[in-house]
Amino acid sequence: MEYVYAALLIDAAGKEINEKSLLDVVKAAGFSPDEAKAKAIVESLKGVDIKEILKSAENMQVAQAQAPAAEHKQEQKKEEKKEEKKSEEEAAAGLAGLFG
Does the pLDDT of residue 39 top 80, yes or no? Predict the structure, then answer.
């Protein structure tokens, strides 16, 4: 995980993510650097726009947070329709009682 965090820090600083920079950040954080892990991270991030991925992840979280609220509103509308239908039926039953 420390290599992923290091890559995020390097990207946030606007610098190129390469093996040397990853190893330097990992070492500065107090971990023992592993060249194979650094190389694997660098290779997996080639052509990846980290800022775009983070932005889309934020949008997904917002959408997920809004979904329960939308469901709640739909449930409220259904309950209101049921209540309206009941009151119409009650009114009709009352009128039927007047005319026998």
Answer: yes
